[in-house]
Design brief:
Layout (H helix, E strand, L loop, with lengths): L1 H16 L2 H22 L8 E6 L4 H14 L4 E5 L2 E4 L2 E3 L10 H13 L4 E5 L2 H5 L8 E6 L7 H4 L2 H14 L3 E5 L5 H5 L5 E5 L9 E5 L4 E5 L2 E5 L4 H16 L4 H9 L9 E4 L4 E5 L4 H12 L15 E5 L10 H12 L2 E4 L9 H9 L9 E3 L3 H11 L5 E5 L6 E3 L5 E3 L2 H9 L2
Parallel strand pairs: 1-5, 1-6, 2-5, 6-7, 7-8, 13-17, 14-15, 14-17, 15-16
Antiparallel strand pairs: 2-3, 3-4, 9-10, 10-11, 12-13, 18-19
Protein name: UDP-N-acetylmuramoyl-L-alanyl-D-glutamate--2, 6-diaminopimelate ligase
Organism: Candidatus Yanofskybacteria bacterium RIFCSPHIGHO2_02_FULL_50_12
Main location: cytoplasm
């Protein structure tokens, strides 16, 4: 790791010496050379394992987690890497890099360590930014999975078309097995790539689809083939993620009963619609950082809990704590976040969330610009810990407090490249103990 840090510093200094236009011209070749250089340095370890790459705008982390549990449930040794953290067999550690897909040398080193540990499979989140920087090159993908596609990272890619093209590159190199979400409007953009075997999934159609589905905010029950599964994860989006993982298990000939049992053992996904408390009021932490994912979380939680339907008293409130992650990036999302909060939330706490070098107050201004209501209670509290505290202090019996944007992350990115230790979940637990 020390050698990699030194290399990073050397490369950074070299880049600073090269005129920007010259570097941008040679940038693709630079990234490609680094990717293959890292693979060569560690002996192309992916060639001796089955690597499953999962891409899409939403659901990558959860799908990686579910696939890992299914493969482990069938007796295989598995490594996994993504925003939820790193895993090699039973050893797990957090991802503190502030990027889902590590740099080329770190990634190849991880694959080499997984190989030495005897892993048969590696499940990997593949991001559009990672593909843009060629981090996927030098990796032999056995299976490519597409979850969905929504507008994101446009400031980096320049257009939605470029964003799609970046995602598509995984399917150009992953031509053995492919798993595709047939429900997604961009399905055909990914279905056009050849594969030895391909499986589609969806909530309404596809090779793998649920029957007799009952979807709630904290669990779902549905049937695939002859297996009836109770999934301890709420929302239709999590059923979709489970179907993606089920499809991968099917491709690798995992018995349906094993898939069912593996999924039913999962109590929650860290930071993904994670209920920290359910009584006397709900407190939920979620990573949602795009308008589509935020709306999916809000609409799922907005449903009245069945045990409160016939009770007499005030309607349960949805109390929302939110900001806008990624200072300097995807600013278009901010007013949309505000509009969604206005649509679904009964009380709003606007707060700080990975501002990097941008003015945190300006970020909140842009989120609030999407809120047109003059009567909705809105609190602007830059101190995220204080915002969480006040939101929890506001909650009454039956209410739901949802804290979005960071999920299971363990640091917050602030000015001058600094990262401060952070955990929404631990802060929630601290206040709930009082």
């Amino acid at each position: 790791m020390i050698q990699e840090t030194i290399l990073d510093k050397i490369l950074y200094r070299v880049k600073k010496l090269i005129p920007r236009r010259v570097f941008e011209y040679f940038q693709p070749m630079y990234h490609e050379a680094l990717a293959y250089g890292g693979a060569l340095r560690y002996g192309f370890p992916s060639r001796r394992m089955k690597v499953i790459g999962v891409t899409g705008t939403k659901g990558k982390s959860t799908t990686v987690f579910l696939i890992t549990k299914i493969l482990e449930g069938s007796g295989h040794s598995v490594a996994a890497i993504g925003s939820l953290g790193f895993k090699i067999k039973d050893r797990e550690w957090p991802n503190t890099l502030k990027m889902t897909m590590p740099g080329r040398f770190r990634l190849q080193k991880f694959l080499a360590e997984a190989k030495r540990a005897g892993c048969e499979y590696v499940v990997l989140e593949v991001t559009s930014e990672g593909i843009k920087q060629k981090r996927h090159l030098g990796i032999t993908f056995d299976c490519a999975v597409f979850t969905n596609l929504h507008k994101e990272h446009l400031e980096s890619h320049g257009s939605i078309e470029n964003y799609i093209k970046a995602k598509q590159e995984l399917f150009q190199v992953g031509d053995h097995f492919q798993v595709l979400n047939v429900d997604d409007p961009h399905f055909e953009d990914f279905d056009k790539f050849a594969a030895e075997k391909k499986i589609t999934y969806g909530l309404e159609k596809g090779d793998i689809k649920p029957e007799q589905a009952t979807i709630n905010e904290d669990h779902s029950v549905f049937q695939v083939g002859s297996e009836v599964i109770r999934l301890n994860l709420g929302g239709a989006f999590n059923v979709s993620n489970a179907l993606a993982a089920w499809s991968v298990g099917t491709l690798y000939e995992v018995e349906p009963a094993v898939i069912k049992n593996s999924l039913e053992k999962i109590e929650s996904i860290p930071g993904r619609l994670e209920f920290i408390q359910k009584e006397p009021f709900n407190v939920v932490v979620d990573y949602a950082h795009t308008p589509d994912s935020l709306e999916a979380v809000y609409s799922t939680l907005k449903k009245k809990r069945p045990d409160l339907t016939n009770e007499v008293g005030p309607r349960p409130k949805l109390i929302c704590v939110l900001g806008a992650a990624g200072g300097g990036r995807d600013k278009w999302k901010r007013p949309e976040f505000g509009a969604l909060a206005e649509k679904y939330c009964d009380e709003i706490f606007l707060t700080d969330e990975d501002p990097y070098d941008e003015n945190p107050t300006a970020i909140l201004d842009q989120v609030q610009s999407g809120i047109l209501s003059q009567t909705l209670p809105i609190h602007r509290i830059l101190d995220r810990k204080e915002a969480i505290s006040q939101a929890i202090g506001t909650a009454q019996v039956g209410d739901t407090v949802v804290i979005t944007g960071k999920g299971s992350e363990i640091s917050m990115a602030v000015a001058n490249g600094k990262k401060i230790p952070w955990s929404d979940k631990e802060i929630v637990k601290e206040f709930l103990k009082r």
